[in-house]
Amino acid sequence: MAFALFETPLGTCGIAWGERGVQRLLLPGDTDESIRARLGESNGGELQPPRQIEGVIEDIRALMRGEDRDTASAPIDLSEASRFEREVYRVARTIPPGKTMTYGEVAARLGSPRLSRAVGRALGRNPVPVLVPCHRVVGAQGKPGGFSAPGGVDAKLRLLAIERAAVPGAPSLFGGDLTGLLQPETAKSKSRS
Q1: Among 99, 103, 135, 94, which residue's Cα sits nearest to residue 10?
Q2: What is this structure's pTM?
Q3: Residue 101 DSSP SS3
Q4: Domain 83-188's class?
Q5: Over pLDDT 90: what percentage of the chain?
Q6: Active site residue ranges
Q7: Residue partners of 145: CB distance under 8 A and separation at least 6
């Protein structure tokens, strides 16, 4: 695996890739040295990304600028994830920018609404946040739930605000409350589309 650091409107990100796609993505919040250390532990070194990875980087930058950019088709390598985690990530990748889904809704799409806690644990181990948009999965009644990237829930709320998605009680980019702008997507709202 090779890796690179790149700048976004939110700060420095780190990306690691192999032949099959992106294997890790580190969101802003750490120093460049810390990102290099975390990515360099088992990687081949810091390199100029190939064209395909440059495209992924540009999509991430655009998304963090607030552009309507979907990263669902970005090549990712989830070979280190369990089968269940890969299924959770597959469902999460269907959530478009600006929309959210609850942990329970993801679990229901997997065939068992009782798996919502397991869904949360799987998303907490997501090696490629934003590419697998775990920030778009929220708790019941629109509560934000957790986020394992640097900055925790505040970072999750910031990403949702950039995408113009709303979680009740979350601050917007310009202050104020985003309540009512967007609620978690439900099967009922999907059937109306």
Answers
A1: 135
A2: 0.82
A3: strand
A4: mainly alpha
A5: 58
A6: 134
A7: 103, 120, 137, 138, 139, 153, 156
